[in-house]
User: What shape does this take?
Amino acid sequence: MNYIGLGSKHKSRGVAANFIVKIVINNQELSVEAGSTVLEAARAHGIDIPHLCYHPALTPYGACRVCLVEVEKNGRKQITTSCTYPVGEGLVVRTNTEEVRAARKFTIGLLLSRAPEAETIKKLADEYGVEPGLERGEDADGCIRCGLCIRVCRELMGHEAIGFINRGAERIPETPFLEDNPDCVACGACAYLCPTGYIKVIDDTTRKISSWHKEEGLAECRECGRRFAPARLLHKVKENLRDLEISDILDLCPECRREKEIKTLNVVEDR
Amino acid sequence: MRGKSTTVQTISVAGGTCGMAAGAGEVWNKFARVLGENSPGIRLELTGCKGFCAMEPVVTIGDIFYCRVRPSDVEEILEKTVHNGELLERLLFQDDGKTCETRREIPFYQYQDRRVLSLTGEVDPVNLQDYLTRKGFESLKKALKMKGEDIIQEVKDSGLRGRGGGGFPTGRKWESCRNSQADSVRYIICNGDEGDPGCFQDRSLMEGNPYLVLEGLIIGGYAIGAEQGYIYVRSEYPLAVKNLEIALARIRAEGFLGRNILDSGFDFDIEIVRGAGAFVCGESSALMASIEGKIGEPRVKHIHATNRGLWDKPTVLNNVKTLASIPLIIGKGAAWFSSIGTENSKGTMIFSLTGNIKNTGLVEVPMGITLRDLIYKIGGGIPGGKKFKAIQTGGPSGGCLPESSLDLPVDYEALLEAGSMMGSGGMVVMDEDTCMVRVAQYFLNFTREESCGKCPPCSEGSLLMLKILDKFIAGNADEDDLDQLGAIGRMVAKTSLCGLGKSAPNPVLTTLRYFKDEYQSHIKGICPAGACPGLNQ
Assistant: This one.
């Protein structure tokens, strides 16, 4: 079980990760960790590959098709997603050929037609000189179906409050029966990872996440009385961290928590 | 036991889903009612599909083959044919004015080599005794005395390749699973999620001879060292599910399945998993996700299922026809199996012949037969004196081949080279009245509806292509659209995640390759087939 804040990095590949293999990325010979993916290896060496559905804490998904690269193994070349392709001795990778860029341009265009207003997608589209693949107008809902929200909810929060419904172009992340799901504690991790801003969290006296038909009560800070976190989320965090004897700071809003920490430090220094 | 020479005559009614839809149930009921409880010397049997769809409901009495039988024919058949040995000419198959007195004379059967299908349509599908008297489970007995490696060697020697589409050598797949992750649990899965429009070979096999499929699955499990097998069948195949369920219960009771099979020390069981009707669940990784209880969507497969498949354990996934070939290979030997076929495609292949063709049905032919022989000798050609235009092979992921491809031998490589594929064995024949732009639209629309939506090239790319195809059909397209269509199709093939998306543009790309002139006519406002309303012919 993964606890909030203590989520262990998901190891999706069952290869022992203690040895090193040599691969070539863009004519550069690199020593990389066996068991990692091409994208992870490239990132570890500062080689930039654009990506949208990848997150280091989550299982690779391979859905957005933006991190496409050319891999060559045993003389066979193919265009594939670097976030899912495992490294292996002698693998040759090219991240920026004309063919790779053309393929990315195509998929970015398709994503742009889904989320024409999203800054991340617009930036990529500018970089690759892309027009929207399909003019959707008002039908563009702003979601690119990258599944980060669903994966973070399932893999790190341990909740599975949301999932994809429908298929094909009608696929969309949703709650069961399109209604408020009590399993969702409105933690907002989904919105935090959403690359397009499709999921919006609005905090007032309550927290509202309209994508999930959610309205959750916010707990008040013990010191200042400000509403700062969903009450049920806080309860869950306390449950999970009860062995750490820090529950007295969990009722405080981030600001009061900081002040309390400073006071504690001052007391220590005064001594 | 056939003909009048024996004391017991068997009246056999083809009762596959196809026959039932054509009224075989009513015919069988009428026979049962008229014959009553006591009818010495007559055995009434409801079999699986006999393959000749165009002639359903089919009734056979020994070698006599009656077509399109109605309940009103039943009394006369009993009186004249069964009791007096007279033929009813109106029910016999007529081929260009020639009457075929026996099944052997019917061209549809004459050129076939029914090996895997030899019992389908000949026996009561769930009658275990019928299967056993025809050497059923002899291959399993033989296999259980062999080592797993030796069985795999035999399958490798046979040259059997996956009959579900990919054509991967079955023996090699088994071997890599057996050798993967020592001491791990292993699984073997039979893929019965046949979903291509116009395809029904797997259904007919599961309905008509479930024991053969199960025997192949058990032998496969033993060879790779699995203790659990699965059959994934789509829920739209209720008769297949029912017959498999009955068959499983019966062989479990007789010790062919379960603990210590036939005292060999081998434990193996099989579970039926029913698919909920998503085409993409026929794709191996989506199928496994579905068995695991997850959403049936494909995963990226840089690691083979034989290494990490179902529940991350080494897994073999084989098509129904592949597994149904296994008892034959073990029973009759690799040499017998590989004695027919082409250099790289051995044995027979089962095809569903459908579309604008006289003899629609299920045929089993040696690999390497030409498309022309398949269409004209077995299929009887195009009805209504129309001209042949195209044949679509490999289902919605396959391609449309023109007249000039008709002398191609049917084998994996030849079809791939031509831009199509073997696929699961669908063959849709189209005549001159078919508009190829609309054909591309039909198949693309099918994959669009069945796309899981995980990756945009498939779900969005198919929408893009459909939009352009709509322009052609409405007569609003220009040369630029022609280039665009091909460019998008190639991109979708290149950037999609799974096999469904990668092959989705095939109907578009092959029609562009072989029927470009037809697209160009549409640009000029002409539909040569006269199928697009609003365009000239």
User: Anything to note?
Assistant: Chain A has three domains: 20-96, 103-139, 148-270. The first helix of chain A runs from residue 38 to 44. Chain A is about 30% helix and 20% strand. Residues 148-270 of chain A form one domain.
